[in-house]
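Many groups now describe folds with learned vocabularies. In that spirit, our science desk offers one protein's residues alongside their backbone shape tokens.
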Amino acid sequence: MSPERLHIALLVPRLPPAPDGIGDYTACLGRTLATQFGCKVTLFSGSGNFDCPEGCDLDTAAYAPGAEILRSLPRALEQHRPDWLIVQYNPFLYAHRGFNPWLVAAIRRCRSLSALKVAIMGHELHMFPDDFKSALMGSYQKIQAEQLFKASHVAFASIETWTRIIRKWVPDQPTIHLPVGSNILPVPLDNLHRQNLKAQLDLPADAVLLGAFGSSHPGKMQALILDTLAQLRRQDLPAYLLGIGSGSASMQQICPESLMPYLRTTGFLTVPEVSRTLQTLDILLSPFADGISTRRTSAIAGFAHDLPVLSTSGKFTDGLWLAEFADYLPPVDNTDAFVQMAADLCKSVERRKAFAQAGRALYERHFTWEVIGRRLLSALESSTGANALLAGSR
């Protein structure tokens, strides 16, 4: 088979414009495999008015919830006959509370198609037992995930923690740590339009604009972000905060009255609007309660837009961050260090530039879609023993 015509099917229930991060990821990955590596790519999704990424085909009858997937997925595979089926997996993506044993049964059934190879991309595997509800859901999610990966030929995982867990389940199978890229592609924006956007925020001329981007989640530490703004203001620094995206509504709700004059919010934005808005920022604040990892797309979007991104290190922080970026990642339990680093960045344009350059270099090495696509195809090539799936793109 010509390497340019390797046929990959990517399974995900939802695609853009539906608001779903894994759907965005799949669309970006599919576009990259098709346009940059010459693969034939078919997106297997559920019913919906979804966009078809450039260079790809779309089958919205391939995925069905519950037991119906036992019929819909094999039927789609028989029709399209891809070389690889790559399942984008997060338990909550496929079912309420993450319970979907029919998905596992469907993948096992698909393995009987002799020419088909199956790969699973684990964005998240299971919940951890932080409380009774999480422990209960995590118990069956863990069993479900283990059985799913045992039904695959190749495993991918978005963070090193998941990679280690999967390798214990399938020690004789290739398991590859595959970072997640930014689902916010930069939109060109000249200085005049950038200044006009900033002017609409009604900021003083000397303002240093901090940003917080993404959906609302306890792990995104919105309280720390607001406390950082408060401490910067107490130091007489001209800091303002712009909440970007759907999470900005909850930030406005918890913001103390004394900080309201320094907070701006956008609400939900389209991808191009997010890109343009990110480009108005001076600093992106992106702390995580479990530390930054290679699946945190809101932070990775900041690197893609040449921003200094201030985050935290914690239990899920991958080794590549600590090896290459440790000086920029205060520990999650050291909030004083986080605030001090934010203050240092506010005071110095040169520090912000150096910080942004370091982040951009890290992004280019690990997080561009070309790097991710090449690494994925290399793993498929190694698994099958086929020659030079990447030959046409080297």
